[in-house]
Amino acid sequence: MSDSNINWFQSPWKVLAALGVLALLLMISPSLMEAGYFPTPGDVRAEANGNSMGAEVNEAVSANLDARAQGWLTSRVEPEPETLGRPEAADRESALDCLIRASDLIDVGSQTGGLIESIPVDVGDWVQAGELVVQLEADVERATVLAARTRASARGAFLSQEEQVALYSRRVERSSSLLDGKALSLEDWDKIQSEHRIAQHDLLRAKEERELAQFQLAQAEAVLKRRSLHSPVDGLVVARNLSAGEIVDDATILTIAQIDPLHADILLPATRFGGIRPGMRASLSLEVAQESRVIAEVDRVDPIIDAASGTFKARLTLTNSDRSIPVGTHCRVEFLN
Fold it and tell me: What's phi and psi for 227, nearest 5 deg?
């Protein structure tokens, strides 16, 4: 052993430094071998043996490195989306969610309280505009109408007053000739004229009473009409809150939904404000029947943008004459123009 080697091992600080370098090399050697800076133990053994097994190992290592390189390159190339070039995929991405609802919901109630006599409809029934849906007890009102109709049609008092006026008119004519011949006193003449005027006033009062009877008949019929509730629209009964025999005050008895036409509500981003206008047409894909599409038209655009969500509302109208589109279904909207 040389003097330099002896001096090296005899210095404790140099020994500690050598051990530190060796430990550092042992820690970083796996990373350096993986990066290719140092050969792996398999490569060393293959090279030392110099046999065919070493060659096969080298080929496997090269193939592995090539595969890694190829994977590294392909991992950085953006894959082409499967939907690229498919117009239907682009349309689906541009479609917006919507909700179909009834164009109107009518709560049927009574202006006056009373006992419910009958409700001839139930939930799920289709009703026509003007159809009777609730009948309240109305015996008193019917009797009032009969009495008013009788008074309005009574002509006895009116005809009697007409005849009285005609009688006094003839008496005035005869008395006038007697007055010219000095055969009638002025006192009797004044009495005859007064009786004639009183008869005319009585006839006028009879006419007014007859007209008043007509107004009372109309009032009684209006009160009776309030006891019968009719559907204001063509629609579907969606709720029934009371039954026959119950007392109604100001509560809702029935709820009728007008489902032709229908409305579809949609929320749009503020960036599309001004691009959506009333009259624009749109294609709707229904959640319950995705293979079928219906055409709707924008009839209202909310002029206010919600600051919190950055959206605004629009409403579309679509026909539902065959009542095949259910209320409450979700849909997707694609504007056509």
Answer: -80, -10
Q: How far apart are CA 325 and CA 222, in angstroms?
A: 38
Residue 261's CB is within 10 A of a number of other CB atoms, namely: 17
**Residues 177-204 pLDDT 10s:** 787 777 788 888 888 889 889 999 999 9
pLDDT of residue 186: 84
Neighbours of 302 (CB within 10 A): 16
Per-domain boundaries in the chain: 3-75, 92-103+252-335, 138-226
Class of domain 92-103+252-335: mainly beta
pLDDT in tens, 127-161: 999 999 999 999 999 999 999 999 999 888 888 88
Kindly report the backbone phi and psi dihedral angles of residue 14, in degrees, each rounded to the nearest multiple of 5, phi listed first.
Answer: -70, -35
Which residues make beta-bridge pairs with 237? Answer: 256
| DSSP codes, 83-127 | TTT-HHHHHHHH-EEEEEEEEEEEEEE-SS-EEEEE----TT-EE
